[in-house]
Amino acid sequence: MADGYARETGRLGVCVATSGPGATNLLTGIACARGSGVPLLALTGQSALPLFGRNALQDSSCAGVDIVGIFAHCTRYSSLVSHVEQAETKMAHAILHALRKPYAPTHLSFPVDVLRSLVMPRSTGHELSKLFREKSCLIDERTVEALEAELIAASRIVFFIGDGAAEAVDSIMTLVELSRGLFVTTPDAKGLINPRHPAYRGVFGLGGHASAQQALADGPDLVVAFGTGFSEFASNNWSKDLLNQRLIHVDESEDNLIRSPLSKLHVLGHMRAICDRLIAAWPPRSYVNRRVAPDVSAVSRVTLQAPDKYDSDATPIKPQRLMKELSERFPPSTRFLADAGNSMMWTAHYLQPPNRRGTGPGGRPRSRSRERRSGTASWLRMTLEFAPMGWAIGAAVGIARGNPHGPVVCITGDGSYLMSGQEITTAVEEKLPVIFVILNDHAYGMVMHGQRLAGAEPTAFELTHVDFRKMAESMGVVAHVVESPADFEQIDFDALLTRRGPTLIDVRIDREEVPPMVQRLKTLGSVSA
Ligand SMILES: Cc1ncc(C[n+]2csc(CCOP(=O)(O)OP(=O)(O)O)c2C)c(N)n1
Fold first, then answer.
1. Residue to mutate, 444, 465, 510, ligand 1, most ligand atoms under 8 Å from C-beta
2. How far apart are alpha carbons 128 and 491 in whole angstroms?
3. What is the DSSP letter of 26?
4. Model confidence, pTM
């Protein structure tokens, strides 16, 4: 939840847990935040200092299950507050380390006797706000000039947008249009753009589109990547069509730049400032006329793997058709999340709501002058790096808490829901409008299809048949079962969208449909490259 809240608001997410098992239960969530670079502070309890090593209940000190040590490996800063006088300084360190780019989780452990002590405010206290001033002007002039020269010289440009480019994406889109380029996104950056933009060629990476692969394979003379660490799922298995000498990598994080050692140029700095500098210098006159304009005439040039299934009326409902229903039935202010498993691939490939750019609170279109969006706005979130099942369930609750201006739709699998579905009760308590959509295939579907595609022994993917509507109703949650596209007509969407609390939709999907996952299997070596 803290992860979702931080992604949505751009603020620090904070979570608190008790010592021992409370703290270890945080571990997967913290590791996920580390993988995705989310700013998060975990505060955990600890037995009293004099009890260390005496077999106290849930001892998580260095003499027991060493929680500071465990967290040290998946946070940027993990420390025991052993004296109350340390509390302020260590808190400042923990916050600043979490908010230093690339963002990361941090952890402080508080023994109960330290927590009970009084802290006297110090006159020399830390004024954290001074340290958080936005360093918006930091750019490397020399490399920006080199980038400008490359943009002018190139005749076919593809822009590659990663999820770290959120703040700059409006300016990047202006550059796409000015330079008559095409663009593709990583799966988790699809939520930053309008998937129906005529210059968009789709998702490159897990669940991606042939048109995106084609755009890069077709030999553009320049690829300009923004805000990405080229992780496995975001780079189509570190594709040679992407990571080569045609690439220019723009990022504010050196940690990301070191992931593209072959690129011809690294441009370090604030991405929006870099783009705005280029836009201000546009157009170089000699250039515009000789530019080969790409074909952006069609409404959508993103190639879907099976467009007929997107429109299919068949029962059981095809997951592709489910994506169509979700794309069309929710207002522009909706935030979607896709969980680990097939949900990620179906969503990356088929979810394509109408233009979400430029929508303000309540989904109202923003006026032109207010077009610049918040640096964290995205209509679709997923987690590609650590990717734990159930991440989307908690994160959806956190996003709803952080953004009261629209519904949140969590697309998850039945396996994931069986791991973390109890979090729905928090949405009940907090009266949050989260719609949980369960792709119910009574299986670990990704595992099942992975084994089939790889010709491996079919094993350990079946799940028991669960009626998630009954489960939800036992918690006082309004729930529906959908077996065919027509069943969506039975759901009162007006009531659903105005409800102050969660809704659950148990979708009994056609589990025989194969998700777009071949690339993942190539990485695993399960199918030949
Ligand atoms: C905690 C955790 N365990 C295992 C995995 C590996 N894994 C990824 S997807 C998946 C199956 C997901 O099943 P389900 O949630 O039912 O979604 P489906 O693929 O069927 O849509 C597994 C086992 C993981 N990512 N996280």
1. 444
2. 49
3. T
4. 0.93
